[in-house]
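Q: Fold this one first, please.
A: Sequence and structure below.
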Amino acid sequence: MQNKPKERYRSILLITGLRKDESWFKAKGSKFYRHSKLDVDVYAPLFEWSSDHIEKYIVINNLPVNPLYKIYEKAYDCWCTVFKTPADFARLAVNHPQFFEKFVDAERKLRKGGSALYYNNQRIYLRDIQKDPRYYLHSFPQGGKCPLCKIF
């Protein structure tokens, strides 16, 4: 007999590298919580760590640095367009064009030809970034935090 999903996941602990200083949204989280959709416990042991703590830990323990930091200056674990600038997507278009093409394809499927990116009250089309990524790299700030973070 197969276990019910909730019973099966009771023994799972999801460990994440979430840190509260990554964004205003993540700062609302906590070090230990129950994931409502997955129905699993989540533990973020680095939640209170700053970027300096992380860098020092890497140096002290002689750990390899994620290669994405050399390309994007961060790990870019989430490509939710709400938290990315046009320059972030342009950098992706230049460095990983095949991966970027997947975003352009997804944008094409939006109803009424909508744009996947809305930045500072302006619709930005990923297909336009794909045509001329250098323009977007030089005309927009690189992200790190979403534009709303400047408000909070």
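Q: Good. Now the second chain.
A: Here it is, same layout.
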Amino acid sequence: MLLLSREDVQSVLTMKDAIRAVEEAFRQFALGNVRMPVRSSVTIQQHKGLMLTMPAYVGGVEALGQKIVTVYPENLSKHNLPTILATVQLLDPETGECLAVLEGTYLTAMRTGAASAIATKYLARRDSSHIAVFGAGVQAETQLEAISEVRRIELAKVYDPVGQRVTEYCQRMSKRIGIEVKCAQNAQEALRDSDIVICASTSRTPVFNGEWLEPGMHINGIGSHTSDTRELDTVTIQRSKVVVDSRESALAEAGDLLLPIAENAISSEHIWAELGDIIIGKREGRTSDQEITLFKSVGIAIQDVSAALAVYREAMQQGRGTVLKI
């Protein structure tokens, strides 16, 4: 068994590789070559935490494994740890043998960014160059990095209630991506004249007013992933062509959609397509420059196991990681 640390994963996984692996996983999903139950969850109320178990098999690329991920919103303030922590187990689909165990927190951020990049590739206007970013954590970093791989981004405006965090994010990402990254004073300023909107916060309530959206925008909503939380308000959902990573998972977990459904503001039929259906041409993506499009992602296991397989293969080629016998 190969043990791959965060440093190992970072050394071998590029964003281009992550995008390639995750797009193929979504394609296989749409073709019916995936076995993936809806993830199970355990709430740890006394510590305000959540544990999720996410298994999947992706045929075609032969990726089998599972991720165990925890979400603890108070980690940063109380323990100086990331909100999301994860471990991925990769198995041999032919024998069931454990091939590798990977540090999954960085992998999670990369595969989540990759999914948004793929959605942006198929749904955002081709001339999109300005981004609004809500949130200034690790997920927001890989979101901006990933989208910069599929669109020529010139400016990003970032808003987060924690002012110092935003300042540090802007300085760090401007240097890393090589574009202008500015701190917005409020949500409306961040949205104004933006083409792409990234919602990657830990907020339990909407981060902007849907009336502020401008025609032609594309939104990636990746921060909220439980049935009683949402980053996007009902107006945003009503105004948008909604694409999801998995219809089954979205209707089980995505408060951004479930809460408007409960309000009778929309029905489940408001979901236009799964991302994989657009990739294989089964459903159309953007059909006009005036359309507002939305990718709502709760994160699904095919992203993790496909990215983990890419990491494992590259690590084996480069001789990275530690071999363990168990």
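Q: Anything worth noting on the second one?
A: The two ends are 8 Å apart (CA to CA).
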